[in-house]
Amino acid sequence: MAVNLRRIRHVKKMTQEELADGAGLSVRYVGAIERADVSASVTVLGRIAEALGVEATDLIKRTAVHPHRSR
């Protein structure tokens, strides 16, 4: 979730402060979620998704890992 959250927030050009305000969370908590220092509850996940304007599933989808290719 941390990777998706940071990626989507950057795509939306939102600061952690803007996201925190929109989700009713503290900036420290949003930062901790992005660093994967803490896990977000389902309720918090929904609030973050709503603030970002995305579906909650977008935050928890596995992202494809592209292996490094030999040259």
UniProtKB/TrEMBL annotation:
Lineage: Bacteria, Pseudomonadati, Pseudomonadota, Alphaproteobacteria, Hyphomicrobiales
Segments forming domain HTH cro/C1-type: 5-59
Keyword entries, A-Z: DNA-binding, Transcription, Transcription regulation
Keyword DNA-binding among UniProt keywords: yes
Chain ranges passing through the membrane: none
Top-rank taxon, per record: Bacteria
Record-linked PROSITE patterns: HTH_CROC1
SUPFAM superfamilies for this protein: lambda repressor-like DNA-binding domains
Protein name according to UniProt: Transcriptional regulator
InterPro entries in alphabetical order: Cro/C1-type_HTH, Lambda_DNA-bd_dom_sf, TransReg_Diox_bact_type
Keyword DNA-binding: yes
